[in-house]
Amino acid sequence: MSGEVVRRLVRSVLVLTPGLYDYVSAQRRFLWMDKLGKVHDRDFLALPQLLRGPAPVVIDVGANSGQTVLSVKRVLPAARVISFEPNPSSVVLLRRLSQRFPDLRIEAVGLGDREAEADFYTPVYNGNPMRGLASFDYTSARTWLNEGTIFGFRPQRLEIRVERALIRRLDDYQLDPDLIKIDAQGFEDQVVRGAMKTIQRTRPLMLIENPSSNLVAIFSGLGYRACEYRGGQLVPATGTATNQYFVPS
Fold first, then answer.
1. pTM: predicted TM-score of the whole model, two decimal places
2. Which of 17, 41, 95, 209 has its CA 20 to 30 A from that of 216?
3. What is the set of domains in the chain, with CATH numbers?
């Protein structure tokens, strides 16, 4: 059985089992992982090799329920994390983490290439709001769940919850990040366009989920190397990994 088939099977079981989905996707799962000394994604194990300052500044775009905060703090305890998250229910979870990490800064907005108020879409399948798939991009929120990603997909069980949320540009915050992590469910290009002055000025390490070919070309033009974390080290990107690091030369 291939790895993709296994992942598809796991997704299918989760979305069709509301109680199990709530347990696996809830913040408490990531808190338990942290108590066990683990990160939510092995790609974060590369950070101590890449960020060597005493208190690196980490921009967390698409913070969700705080898994990036926990993983960054696990491997870089002194890091200062600034989380951007437009989903109100996720912001509530992030604020719980701020009680544990007083230096955590939470901005309850989304990032993009303009200042605006826009519709924010959350897919709800089988009664489960899937915060991790929510996006300002309607097509991304609507189409990620389909016959190819889960077994037994039923279109009639999928609905899209719409809320209004604020969008800002990272450039307007005048921050000096050492790392920018972006997980924006199809909105990554807009986030980068609104952060271009910051990126050119500070040359931060970038960690982007499923970067588009356009972003790969942009960072190549800026003198960045596209890499993946495999076997405990960074290797040239193959395009098969979910996350890609863009490392400034």
1. 0.87
2. 41
3. 3-248 (3.40.50.150)
pLDDT at 12: 73
Higher-pLDDT residue of 65, 195: 195
How do residues 157-208 score in pLDDT, each as one tens digit?
Answer: 899 999 999 999 999 999 999 999 999 888 999 999 999 999 999 999 999 9
Per-residue pLDDT, 144? 84
SS3 210: coil
SS3 122: strand
Measured CA angle at 28 (ends 160, 178), to 5 deg = 85
Residue from 112, 106, 115 nearest 135 by CA? 112
In the 3-class helix/strand/coil scheme, how is the chain assigned residue by residue? CCHHHHHHHHHHHHHCCHHHHHHHHCHHHHHHHHHCCCCCCHHHHHHHHHCCCCCCEEEEECCCCCHHHHHHHHHCCCCEEEEECCCHHHHHHHHHHHHHCCCCEEECCEECCCCEEEEEEEEEECCEECHHHCECCHHHHHHCCCCCCCCCCCHHHEEEEEEEEEEECHHHHCCCCCEEEECCCCCHHHHHHCCHHHHHHHCCEEEEECCCHHHHHHHHHCCEEEEEEECCEEEECCCCCCEEEEEEC
Cα 49 to Cα 44, 53, 176: the distances in Å are 10, 11, 20
